[in-house]
Amino acid sequence: MATATKLEVFDAKGKKAGSVDLPEAIFGAETNVPLIHQVVTAQLAAARQGTHKTKTRGERSGSGVKPFKQKGTGRARQGSVRMPQHRGGGIVHGPVPRDYSQRTPKKMIAAALVGLLSDRARANRLHVVEGFGIADKPSTKTAREFLAQVAPGNRVLVVVDREDVLTVLSVQNLPNVHVLFHDQLNAYDVVVSDDLVFTKAAFDAFVDGRAAKEDSK
After folding, report:
1. Which of 30, 100, 141, 154 is the Cys-Cys partner for 45 at CB 3.0 to 4.6 Å?
2. Which residues is 157 bridged to in the sheet?
């Protein structure tokens, strides 16, 4: 399925309010599934704290004397109550603090995101709206009703610009709805979402930002 060169923009009432151009470099790229898997796996790995720790035999508290004499008891010889087979003893080959992050080149990260955005555009799962119709104060009800019209998917990712505080406050408590600023868009949040909803301001800022990065190379 070919990617449309234009995408309709809807207003707060769900009616057509214009259109935006879909740059071929961002929304017409090939979707490389193995690359996306590698980038998402690296992103999840980097999010791990890696602070897990168990105590070895030498770190456990307890006496260092033998629990009973070496010979004459008929039991297996034991050197310390801190040995792993004793209750409260050390752990053998347990986890230790480590860094789970994986080196992922920036070009791979960018290619994975572009591939996902192109896939959402081809599947008609990319939406651009003028706004949520929230003017004075946050309204979760208004945001919920609007998203039900625009984005039919079970999991929705809303992308806004950093000035749109009212929209953030309105959608952040909705179940199965995640909100990001346009400069936080990443492969993981896109791949776990069924529908992607941009505000017009966020879409323009994202496209302009990508174009600026390409020009600076």
Report:
1. 100
2. 178, 196
DSSP of 57-88: TTTS-S--S-SS-SSSSSS---S-TTSTTSTT
- What six digits make up the tokens of 155? 């999991």
No. of H helices and E strands in the chain? 7, 6
Spatial CB neighbours of 61, under 8 Å, sequence gap ≥ 6:
82
Are residue 87 and residue 37 in the same domain, yes or no? no
For residue 1, is it within any domain? no
pTM of the model: 0.83
**Are 72 and 136 in a shared domain?**
no
pLDDT digits (tens, 9 = 90+) for 126-139: 999 998 988 889 99
Neighbour tally for 164: CB within 10 Å: 21
